Input
Amino acid sequence: MIRNYLDKINVAFLSTYPPRACGLATFTEDLIKEIDKIAPLYNPYVDTSVIAVSDDKYTYDTKVIKEINQFNKVDYFELAQYLNDSDIDLLVIQHEYGIFGGESGEYLLDLIYHLKIPFITVLHTVLINPSDKQKYVLKEIGKYSTRVVTMAKNTIELLENIYDIDRRKIVHIPHGVPYIYYGERENLKKELGLEGKIVVSTFGLIGPGKGLEYGIEAIAKLKNEFPNIVYLILGRTHPGIVKNEGESYREKLLKMVENLGVKENVLFVNRYLTQEEILKYLQASDIYMTPYLNKEQAVSGTLSYALSCGRVIVSTAYRYAEELLADGRGILVEFRDSEGIYRAIRDVLNNEEKRKEIERKAFKYGKSMWWNVVAEKYITLFHEVILEKNAEIGGWKKWSFSTLELTTYSD
Output
């Protein structure tokens, strides 16, 4: 339902949402908070709400106006009817195959086939070698989406060539990251009980794909030369893994730590950290490590966080890391290579000038990913889509809003 005159744009986000422990939930909450903060500066301003995708019973805040059962096919069709009859002007779908029901999230198609309002899809995973069903689902989403947002430039060719998405629809907007300065590194180390330590960290929901065992092996090699080194593994085990496998992966890591004799050098913080805690730990770190095992990983919020804090990052060469850490903004190593991680960390710890140069480049690049910058790009995109839609039906009037930088790919 497109109104003839708009003093605001009602935008609903279809996503997981806190308290559900999920990277998309955190992303959506952070983005909405920043949009809400700056939206009054724009005419028409953006009014946000959430349609939560649930896999269990959760108590949501008032931002959530509707909830669907991830595994109930009917809910997706009924959601389309609900949105078509509402005053929502635009739907933003946060897409990850695993958060929607059916094979490869195919239940989502029951929503988009029946939706009459425009929608934007934000992609959190773009696979190089999708299954036939994964390819089909994303092709259909791209076909019906008004815009498709990718957070990594190196996925644009994939979206066009593998998934047949019209290049004119594709918009690159970086993964947003918070930035609040909490103090000097050494002061934060003291506050966190890490005074006098060389701090290496990894944070996020833990699971076998994180490759943490290779990071632990690297620390075991480093401790002889740097006995004060500490590797912080920050975060609880992914709830989906706990549900299906229990804590077997964490127990494996704990046993490895004991066998390698690094109980004093590898510390686990086994809980879901607040944003303030994450930023404090990152700003207290000397090195951030992502030894992930999946080459195809297109986006990593944790890597984005570390880059925005201007920390030296040592990472396996998954696709998102290759893009973000290019031009000397970090150090890439091979997969499943604890020796490579060891050499990379040793090299930077022995070269103060190199460490400072990497930190400088990382921080400079990371500023383009701060949430206030990213939220402005989304607001501009929302305005653009609604203006186009209203122009199609002959009902638009000129609005006054700032023209912000937005990178599209039309040639």
Notes: The chain is about 40% helix and 20% strand.
